[in-house]
Amino acid sequence: xxxxxxxxxxxxxxxxxxVNAANSSLLGGGGVDGAIHRAGGPAxxxxxRMIVARQGGCRTGEAVITTAGRLPAKHVIHTVGPVWxxxxxxxxxxxxxxxxxSLLLAEQHRLSxxxxxxxxxxxYGYPPREAVQVAVGTVRATADLLQCVRQVIFVCFxxxxxxxxxxxxx
Length: 170
Prior knowledge:
Layout: E1 2-7, E2 17-22, H1 31-40, H2 42-55, E3 63-67, E4 75-80, H3 91-108, E5 113-116, H4 128-142, E6 151-156, H5 159-169
Parallel strand pairs: 1-6, 2-4, 2-5, 5-6
Antiparallel strand pairs: 3-4
Helix pairs in contact: 3-4, 4-5
């Protein structure tokens, strides 16, 4: 599996799937979530509403897949990251679930490339250095379970995050 780190806007990434750091309602929000919904257009929100009608949203650590609307990606995988409470309420395991479940959902849909933002590192307050460790570690630990997913892209919003990912990826 190829792991790539780039600096940029996840809404402009050409991949089979981009991952949305969603909230549990799946109905849009701020940060990456809002940017994906704005750039992708109403088709994403409509697909999310159908998921909510069927299952009532998405719990922390889970992942669901929708169309990507007007985005260059083919799909959006929505996952709900944990809110940071000091790391003593299962946050590392829940964050790992976000990455693992997103990868497994991509595999289930026979996708070959997936791009991740820094899940939970914005308003959810997860410390970036610890989040990078969980993200890269989980992707590497899950790689053996994947046959279709051949490329993982970590899309960094700023140079500090990019440097952390590059150091961890090696």
